[in-house]
Amino acid sequence: MSDRHFEYFKKCIRKCPTDIFEYFGTCIQKMSDRHFRILQKIKCPIDIFEYFKKCIQKMSDRHFRVLQKMYSENVRPTFSNTSEHVFRKCPIDIFEYFKKCIQKMSDRHFRILRKMYSENVRQTFSSTSEHVFRKCPTDIFEYFKKCIQKMSDRHFRVLQKMYSENVRPTFSSTSKNVFRKCPIDIFEYFKKCIQKMSDRHFRVLQKIKCPTDIFEYFKKCIQKMSDRHFRVLQKMYSENVRPTFSSTSKNVFRKCPTDIFEYFKKCIQKMSDRHFRVLQKMYSENVRQTFSNTSKNVFRKCPIDIFEYFKKCIQKMSDRHFRVLQKMYSENVRQTFSSTSKNVFRKCPTDIFEYFKKCIQKMSDRHFRVLQKMYSENVRPTFSSTSKNVFRKCPIDIFEYFKKCIQKMSDRHFRVLQKMYSENVRPTFSSTSKNVFKNFDINFDSPFPLLRLPRLVQCEIFKSLNIEEKIMLSFCSKRISTQINNYRLYSQKVIVDLDCFKQVIDIQSENNQDIFQVGILPDSRISHSSTIQKLSIACCTVRAEYLQKGMKTFWNNCLEGFLSIIHHLLKIFQCKMSTSFNSYCSDLFQPIILKLFDLQLEFKRLSICLKRSMEENLLWNQISNNLGLVEYLSISSSLDPAFEQVFTSWPRKIRILDSDWFTLETLLSCTCSKIILEESLLENKDFDVVLRKWKTGGFPNLKLLWLASPKITDNGEQILGMNLNELDEKVIQTDDGSKKATIKLSFLWAIEIYVTPFE
Amino acid sequence: MTSPASSSEVKYLIESSEGNTFDVSGAALRQSNTFNAMFLNIGADGPIPFTDYNEATLKKVFEYCEHSVNEENYSGPKHQDDLSKWDLNFFNEMDQKMFIDVINASNFLDIERLTSYCCERIARMLRGKNTQEMIKVITLPTAEELEAKQKVEEKKAAAAKKVAEKAAETAEKTETLEELPVQQLVQTTRNKLTRKYLSFSNE
Asked: Where is the F-box domain (chain A) (predicted)?
């Protein structure tokens, strides 16, 4: 451990809570002791074990620093920010970090073991009795197996603790995103996954005999494992969660959301006795009066039959439902609700059923809206077609669902009312006066001439529509699409995110409240559903299926589909594109990206993964010519070292995860304002050149340079005439005095340079 | 006929496309930003010509204005459930033709609250519908209809210009205000309205 790491380590220790690091320290100490004991059993000469002991001690220090960094750099700032966006990215970041952690850990293991093998073990082995290491491979693998299991357990505990100590209180202080992605089961799942994976590793490793290959293999395996973890977890937040859950072991997801929703669905149709009493009381004493007092005429003529029916429905509630709700309330809801914004649950009482009672009393307006919708011609077909899909979206985010359920209870009511409608209400309503449902909605006999209205009025109308409605309306005709395009300045700003892998395009508002998804699928995926309808998009007639908050479109040629939809969306919303992390996995990614570059469309974020293939080098050549159209470029894999990468243009910001191919010459020619290079191979002398160039007016756009290279060390090679340690917190300035930069040394060989103009 | 100092008590004469005139209170009329821009400070001499709209439409529009005189300041469109019984009846009594005329007149007179409610009512017509359902509830105009619409808007621009000229004439006759500021006000108003409607026609 270098001095500067130690200094940082000491600084952070002072600031961080003792308990976590106490815990880490104990864990790591145990691990190192275990290492030592295992290695001692191998009966190697004492000096080797001395060496191992030191190595492992360093490793544990490194573990400690990694975890400390995780806490101090990722978790704490993230958690402490309790704005509404805090947890939007939180779980992904944790797992992103976790992924890296495991990768780095495997690298470390690999290096240690390789060093062990090359420097000590081999010679020692050759000079010692042939029996000394007779059992060595098995022991090593046994050790590795245990190590990874323990490691995953430890990670699990750390993350779980992190969650329990940090996340939950934070959740309680957030408002809108209270239960958005709360990962209780994720950790359970993660733990088991890693355990299983380590078993698999062990079996594979046992079959391999060559020590060099073992380590190489191990390194790659763990990298893949972490990638797979990441993908699995990402998937958990996507549409594919449900299949994923259902295909896992029944023990893994004993509390699988599928069951929860299935259960909920059934439960909600029934109701507990307690609910019944509350609602019965409400009915006899309050409801009718309440309903008649709200929205004055809404329920004026509402027949008694509805309430009679309601009473019967509610009577069926099960005790189980009550217990689930009570548990939900006691574990999650109460704490959260009590500290949410004053407007959300201002009147939330201690007893959820008290609260329920009040909510239901106030529900007359909601009832009215639902019933009103039900009353229209479209509702019944919609209900029948959505019956299967009622809970389809739920698993995406169980807590989002809970939150909505509890806050609005509309889903539940909707289903109750749905049943009510299908069994009783419709005949009842049809026999009541037409005035019962006379309301604010237009019900003209002839079609409404929307486009004949004054332009300002059209603009107001378009402005009040949400993303889904705008998209639906834009498909009505080319002329309407053009009109919406004309009023784009009045429209909300949206983000269009391309995911070629899942074959969807997500369109969402900047605050993520308004989301719509368009799927682009081949014709072969058309289901023989009555809900398939024809649409005209960009002069093509395609078939479409409408979903809740989304639609699927079916194309003869998916590439054409993607380009048509993208073009249409960008025309309506005039926004930039982003590509998701997964997109590069799709064969469609390359042609789509290149076509969009041909059209000179701008990218907000472009994520690419360049592996070691000639085709991707060709892709890189084509992309590099158009990087001026990209605001933020993220490259998540390394290029072929033999390939001479050339940046003929630059994005505004760049992040390269494996930047060993990014040479000093390339960096010196970089014009980006934000440069993040991870796993770089630049050295002290290179960094010196970079800083000297900046001082003489180079890198005119630079605002931030973040450079992580294990080769920049305090090895005596001076930078700007100083040792590396002396650069920490150093403020340097350009020769002309126009700008200053603050240098900060971080953990894991990272150096940050923040440039600010002189005031 | 009117004086700026007592605009809330006085009645203004409004002239419709049929040439008929009727009274509207100053308080109701002040909800029209178009009126405010042209006449509020300088007063009107004789009937105010809103001759692009028929009497029934104008009466309906000002009926709404009269009703909402005593309501609090407008703070954006309300949810339908917040609408009063009177509001619901007001909108439900109108057939489609009348509703469109009211939107047009409200838009021209720039009555924010009424325009906003009308827009919300139309938006609700589209809510929760997919493309096929939307196509059923709206009329997609032909090219000829769009051309005709452009002509109508040009006509409205001319009408706006006429109204502005009327305001200018009134201003010239007004002795209570200094000559130069009034001329500037009238000229500014005239230019503003002309630019506004010409820009619509040119789009």
From this structure: 447-493
